[in-house]
């Protein structure tokens, strides 16, 4: 509680009053308010994206590099300034005109994936490959993963852009 302590000094000078304030009730009140708001507020659940990762193999064996024919896959390159490119070419066949551009509209990406899937000779191993560049932003990556989810294709991979793709990509964005 607040209390006032007075001291009298002789000599005809003014009396100086010292004030001492006890802060205990203020701390108690702050603590009670803090607890009240903590218990009455609701905490939101964070939004997460399910990546559908494969289960752990109980009997691991050496992985052989499986080469997927370019007709059984489609590659999306996420670039800078909200740009996205796609192709179905290998290292020898990819040219500047073969790297096509689209936007993040779910209908466009789903249509591209659907057309590539329909043309795939082995539909059971059709794979979508996503390759973000160093200039890509996280929002575009999430948008691309949402578009893959919309297309209902469960077989996809995320990889670094290959040097031969990067060369063609840089030629196209100039």
TrEMBL record:
It is found in: Cell membrane. It is a single-pass membrane protein; Single-pass type II membrane protein. The chain crosses the membrane at residues 21-39. This is Biopolymer transporter ExbD. Its main location: membrane. The keyword Transmembrane helix applies. Belongs to the ExbD/TolR family. The keyword Heme does not apply. Keywords: Cell membrane, Membrane, Protein transport, Transmembrane, Transmembrane helix, Transport. InterPro entries: ExbD. Signal peptide: none annotated. It comes from Chryseobacterium luquanense.
